[in-house]
Amino acid sequence: MLLGAFAKVRRKERVLDLGCGVGVLAIMALLRNPGCTACGLEITPGAAELARQNLELCGLSDRGGIVCGDMRDMPRGLIGRFDVCISNPPYFHPERGFSSPSAAMAAARNQSCGGISDVCAAAASCLKWGGRFYLCYPPGDLSPLFAALLQNRLEPKTMRLVFPTETSHPCLVLIEARKGGGVHLDILPSLIIEKDGQKTSEFKKMYTLED
């Protein structure tokens, strides 16, 4: 939800939800921006089918579609077609920590179906020149994230750290990168999820369809 609110989509732009799961980010983009169109790419057939059903249930099938495929072998019809790419990529190495016994959940959680370098390469291949890539990632892994972005000519342009509370360490980083962009990074004010035991108004607003 935080990533969906962070991503900026303009009227008539084409959006790709890379590794879309059940289609949440694609649906958020379509609901927040009535003039845009969106496509989701998902490797797991069951999740891809659920994403198609979700688009239909939301009345968005005329503006959105789902492709079942592997970002490491990008379907030709998706290359160079999009103004915006959004991705909530798998964070964890498959040989570290907990791995779900469900193959679909494991693919969503860990990097068994592609690491951050694969995600950035896929985003770069699908974006038009000057297109924008929005993603979230663990703050402790910023170094490999930035290396993967720059290797694929995706220049980090905006960064925002997310904190559970005012006194905690950051739990998430939100990044906007631009294909072929110039060197300059804006650091936005931090997003605090909870203050004095209550969810902040900014955090709660991100769960609405307001800009």
Model description:
- This protein has helices at residues 2-6, 24-32, 45-57, 103-109, 116-126, 142-151, 201-205; strands at 14-18, 37-42, 64-68, 82-87, 127-137, 154-165, 172-179, 186-187, 191-195, 198-199.
- With 211 residues, the chain is an alpha/beta fold.
- The longest helix is centred in the first third of the chain and has 13 residues, at 45-57.
- The protein contains seven helices and ten strands.
- Mean pLDDT is 91; it is low at 102-112.
- The protein has one domain: 3-Layer(aba) Sandwich (Rossmann fold), CATH 3.40.50.150.
- Strands 1, 2, 3, 4, 5, 6, 7, 8, 9 and 10 form a ten-stranded mixed β-sheet that branches.
Helix content: 25-40%
Q: What name does the CATH topology carry?
A: Rossmann fold
Largest sheet: 10 strands, mixed
| Total tally of structural domains | 1
Strand content: 25-35%
- The whole-number mean of residue pLDDT values reads 91
What is the fourth-level CATH superfamily?
Vaccinia Virus protein VP39
Q: What is the structural class?
A: alpha/beta
Multimerization status:
single chain
CATH class: Alpha Beta
CATH architecture: 3-Layer(aba) Sandwich
**How many runs of DSSP E, i.e. beta strands?**
10
Low-confidence spans? 102-112
| Number of DSSP helical runs | 7
Shape: globular
Which sequence of SSEs, written as H and E, runs from N to C?
HEHEHEEHHEHEEEEEH
* CA-atom Rg in angstroms: 17 Å
Report the end-to-end length measured between terminal Cα atoms.
Answer: 13 Å
